[in-house]
Write a structure and sequence with these properties.
103 residues, 3-stranded mixed sheet, disordered N terminus
Length: 103
């Protein structure tokens, strides 16, 4: 029971750091011109868990929440842009994704 309490306390302490921008982003979403894409939806994907999507901030940064199962990929989308599906997350962070305007 103690490890669960410790984990919950640690999670409670770390999450505000992530939302304040003190931790590096997992993903940076940009457009073709190199400008950040705010409010793009970034959805982590694992073998059997559907994670809740997160939105990029005004800098195009997104940070994933706690990992209950290893994330393999993520999907990125925003209205007006062509979506990116199954982007590999195993490389160095942050992963940069370039969205192009939809035809």
């Amino acid at each position: 029971m103690k490890p669960l309490i410790f984990s919950t306390s640690l999670l409670t302490a770390v999450m505000p750091l992530a939302s304040c921008g003190l931790l590096p982003p997992d993903v940076i979403v940009l457009d073709n011109a190199g400008s950040p894409v705010a409010r793009a939806e970034v959805e982590p994907v694992s073998a059997s868990i559907n994670y809740k999507p997160v939105l990029t901030n005004s800098k195009g940064h997104a940070r994933f929440g706690p990992e209950f199962q290893k994330r393999e990929w993520f999907n990125v989308g925003k209205d007006g842009y062509a979506p990116h599906a199954f982007v590999n997350i195993s490389g160095p962070k942050p992963v940069r994704v370039i969205l192009t305007k939809a035809p």
